[in-house]
Amino acid sequence: RSMLCTLSAMPLAGVVSALPQMARAAEFSYKYGNNLPLSHPLNIRAKEAADEIREKSGGRVDIAIFPNNQLGGDTDMLSQVRSGGIQFFTPSSLVIATLVPVAAINALGFAFSDYAQVWKAMDGDLGAHVRASIRKIRLYAFDKMWDNGFRQMTSSKGPIQQASDLEDLKIRVPVSPLSISMFKGLGAAPTSLQFSEVYSSLQTKIVDAQENPLPIIQVAKLYEVQKYCSQTNHIWDGFWFIANGAAWDRLPDDLKKIVADGINGAGMRQREDIRKLNDSVQSDLQAKGLAFNAPAPDTFRAALRDAGFYKEWKGRFGDEAWSALEASVGKLV
Ligand code: X2X
Questions:
Q1: From the CA of 75, how far away is ligand 1's center (Å)?
Q2: Ligand 1 contact via 154 beta carbon (within 6 Å)
Q3: Which atom of ligand 1 is nearest to the CA of 148?
Q4: How far is the CA of 313 from the CAs of 1, 48, 307, 319, in angstroms?
Q5: Whole-number Å distance between alpha carbons of 283 and 285
Q6: Those residues with Cβ within 8 angstroms of residue 143's Cβ, 6 or more apart along the chain or in another chain
Q7: Is the Cβ–Cβ distance between 298 and 107 less than 8 Å?
Q8: 3-class DSSP state for residue 172?
Q9: Are strands 189-192 and 170-173 parallel, antiparallel or unpaired?
């Protein structure tokens, strides 16, 4: 109260000069959009990165975060980050692959069996190959990929124990040619929808099933509209933290370093968050009513081989990327 009186009694110029330095417009005011609820580790660590970057740059770089599809769905944000309407975006590898096809390679069905293989590939030659391809369309991908997780299938129809349980199942997949090809190969009836539409399309039964890592099923409350969760681990999915190429190039070297260190460091902590969540999230989702089962991968792999899935995608990804993947996971075809 007394504070208010003092301020309103002050001449306007006095108020303005009394504002803290942080409130001045930053030299680089950048926007970052993503598709996940605020409670997901991606948003928690991104906020941490933005705070660190603002502080270390002395307020010169200010990153405003727009979570949860506030700026539109993935397809919209992808075009905004290309045009420079926003400067940062974290598309899943499945989603950026609509522009950079080779980026989907980490999502090849049943390629990775554990995180040791994942990070060996993505922090090594395979990740470097994908980042170079992303750079070619004038986007910049930060070195450390963030974790989405191993994707699991959920359904309102029944547990998926083997490939034949997928027959004609109406399943939502991301806007991703690889996901469509994979689920067709498994005999399902996949539909591509942006993540912003997943909850309502399950609720209204436009689709009966979807597939996502457990932390997403938790934060997006998909357990409210699904009954069964089958831990298939069929795809490992991550988010590329990308910047609009011109907005990145515009930063002087000292600021580039502060921004990259902030984002890559937060990404490493976000990986650790997901690792810890993976240990606890299943019991939480069970308590919320999801019935779990853990099918063996054999029937799914066999169905994909018989459908010619691996041969087709080896051709589409190219030998260089394919060999880099096999260097981490062993021979695939
Ligand atoms: O859309 C999805 O399913 C999500 C959230 O996992 C991605 O961003 C690919």
A1: 12
A2: no
A3: 6
A4: 67, 38, 11, 10
A5: 5
A6: 123, 127, 131, 260, 264
A7: no
A8: strand
A9: parallel
**Does the Cβ of 148 fall within 6 Å of ligand 1?**
yes
The secondary structure element, H or E, covering residue 305 is: helix 298-306
- Does the beta carbon of 216 sit less than 6 angstroms from any atom of ligand 1? yes
Report the alpha-carbon distance of residue 101 to residue 312 in Å, rounded: 13
What the block records as the tokens of 7 is 């301020």
* pTM listed for this prediction: 0.92
What interface predicted TM-score (ipTM) does this complex get? 0.98
Nearest-CA residue for ligand 1 atom 1 is 195
Identity of the residue numbered 7: L
230 closest CA partner among 171, 304, 275, 174? 171
Fill in the amino acid letter for 313: W
Structure tokens at 63: 């990153």
Among protein residues, the one with the nearest Cα to ligand 1's atom 5 is 195
Measured CA distances, 4 to 1, 14, 50, 120, 187 (Å): 5, 14, 31, 57, 67
Tens-level pLDDT at each residue, the chain (333 residues): 344 444 444 445 445 555 555 557 899 999 999 999 999 999 999 999 999 999 999 999 999 999 999 999 999 999 999 999 999 999 999 999 999 999 999 999 999 999 999 999 999 999 999 999 999 999 999 999 999 999 999 999 999 999 999 999 999 999 999 999 999 999 999 999 999 999 999 999 999 999 999 999 999 999 999 999 999 999 999 999 999 999 999 999 999 999 999 999 999 999 999 999 998 999 999 999 999 999 999 999 999 999 999 999 999 999 999 999 999 999 988
Separation between Cα atoms, residue 209 and residue 201, nearest integer Å: 10
Ligand 1 pocket member 303 (CB < 6 A): no
β-pair partners for 151: 235
